[in-house]
Amino acid sequence: MTLKGKAYKFGDNINTDYIISGRYKFKTLNMDELAKHIMEDLDPDFYSRLNPGDFIVAGKNFGCGSSREQAPLAIKHARVGAVIAKSFARIFYRNAVNVGLMLIEADTDEISNGDELDVDPEKGVIFNKTKSIKIKFNPLPDFMLSILKNGGLVKHFKKHGGYNF
Amino acid sequence: MGKTLAEKLLSRGAGREVSASEVILVNLDFLMGQDGTSPLAIKAFYDMGGEKVFDPSKIAMVIDHSSPSPSHGISQLHDMMRKFAKETGIILYEIGEGVCHQLLPERGHVVPGDIVIGADSHTCTYGALGAFATGVGSTDLAAAMISGKTWFKVPETISIVFKGRAGKGVFSKDMALKLASVLTADGATYKALEIKGQALENLSMDARFTISNMAIEAGAKVGLMVPDMVTIDWVKKHSVKSFVPLYPDNDAHYENEIEIDTKNLEPQVAVPHQVDNAVPISEVEGVEIQQAFLGTCTNGRLEDLEIAARILSGNRVHPDVRFIIAPASKKILTMAVKKGVFEILNDAGAVFVTPGCGPCVGTHNGIPSDGENVISTANRNFKGRMGNPEASIYLASPATVAASAIEGKITDPRKYL
Ligand code: SF4
Q: How far B199 CA sits from the closest chain A CA (Å)?
């Protein structure tokens, strides 16, 4: 599996309120509607410029703040290919896997805004086509990759009747 | 090589020897959801094809965040929880019973050695009992309600040693705020904390819960303490569950060891808008406040109310300050009434609201106005946390909050003790 897309770069400590502001979060449970507002306070045109499969790239502690699942869900519904960050807040990490949003934990210093990337989540390699460099990372454990491939924990459970660990 | 307390606990849960960085499936001893997260979990439960829960006596849902309901929409969600509880037979704690993180230990659901998940980030509170307790999302809770299991990556552990005993006017909240500022907001992400040291020895369970509660403010997965006689006595008083405490090995591997000088610690205040912004009180004394709040899963326990009463006894709340108190549970409120603590606080001008989260998360019960300063015993002071991004929240101990309520400005509690 190779994911292809363009990098949109953000900084450290992107909290769940920046991902999706409380202004919208409590108003609707329609995730496609929420998706239109992701990252709005940091980059007002983000959603309109985003193409399906593009990547959110960030520094450390992405997704810190509340334990609500709307944040990874909204990113997923915006059809972001994966979030690539130096580290993730741990509840966000779990929630992302559970809702079927791909996460890559890698050194993002060599990725700039607008770079074209090829990402292989199973082999653990990001190829930065714009800069012509390879970045290696530890792939997710098989168990999590299988949840992701099934589209999240709800579908995974439905299919296997349990974790199928 | 020996094992840390986190590795010991997860080895028991997995039924085999595990060590840091393995991804494992564990059996759970107790599960919890609150009214902000349970509705989504219930939806996911049915979407997964769930029909019955694995063991209704091991699951509790608590209506504490917006309780009693402040709006029509929230009433509908509460109703959904009540129906689910009736249908599956799980435990439901109704409005006014208290904050989830107080109820689980107080009602004996958690004992040393247990593995517990809660759909709330401060589930780490019960680490103070030597239980592996951590926050998860709603979908995790749903899957666990069906299977009785969840997955974890076994964490590395940071050892935290509080050296020396705290001086007069310095409480476990001051230690917790100091710890958050030393580690910083993401300094312990994915990691377990093993919190120990001389300063813990003479702390009550009430006081210890405060420190474990705030482990998540440094991103930690759990804030564990090693059980001692204080723990065992407390648990025997509160629970009928049998238990076998676990202890770390002497040759356990710690990723890092951090010492905190408790002996010379001053009362701490976390200034807006981050928890890891703790400063000694001398740096912020005199900042005017309009609201003071005593309560939450961090500091709404009997001992906290008693400290505030000691300070307010013979004094009055400043006329320009609203002093709101939300006991962490109904039991605590009852005890406060019995011991005369309620009367002292009430007569001094404080206002009691329903036991529960109170104004902590900004849905009801005391939302500050624009430009106001609040001094609070809670665990978070993020912008907008109490429902208004134009207000500023300072975090401190119950003693500091009470002293500040008297003077209408941030005040060192030591002059009242
Ligand atoms: S008291 Fe505050 S921090 Fe604790 S569970 Fe309730 S809302 Fe969360």
A: 29
C-beta separation of B10 from B24 below 8 A:
yes
Residue A165 inside a domain? The answer is no
Domain that holds residue A84: 3-160
Number of domains in chain A: 1
Taking the centre of ligand 1 as the mean of its atom positions, its distance from the CA of residue B36, in whole angstroms, is 10
Q: φ and ψ at B305, to 5 degrees?
A: -65, -35
- Cβ proximity of A15 and B219 under 8 Å: no
Residue A73 resides in a domain = yes
pTM score, whole prediction:
0.94
The first and second tokens of residue B337, run together, are 């009434």
Q: Is residue A112 part of a domain?
A: yes
CA angle B209, B213, B218 (to 5 degrees): 140
Taking the Cβ of residue A157 and every Cβ of chain B, the question of whether any pair is shorter than 8 Å is answered with yes
Q: Has residue A69 been placed in a domain?
A: yes
Pocket of ligand 1 (CB under 6 A): B 65, 99-101, 120, 122, 296-297, 357, 360-361, 378-379
pLDDT by position in tens, chain B (length 417): 899 999 999 999 999 999 998 999 999 999 999 998 899 899 999 999 999 999 999 999 999 999 999 999 899 999 999 999 999 999 999 999 999 999 999 999 999 999 999 999 999 999 999 999 999 999 999 999 999 999 999 999 999 999 999 999 999 999 999 999 999 988 999 899 999 999 999 899 999 999 999 999 999 999 999 999 999 999 999 999 999 999 999 999 999 999 999 999 999 999 999 999 999 999 999 999 999 999 999 999 999 999 999 999 999 999 999 999 999 999 999 999 999 999 999 999 999 999 999 999 888 999 999 999 999 999 999 888 898 889 999 999 999 999 999 999 999 999 999
Contact A153 B49 (CB under 8 A): no
The answer to whether residue A61 neighbours chain B at the CB level (below 8 Å) is: yes
- H-only helix segments in B258-340: 296-299, 302-312, 330-338
Write the ipTM: 0.91
Ligand 1 pocket test: pick from B32, B34, B122 the residue with the most ligand atoms within 8 Å of its Cβ.
B122
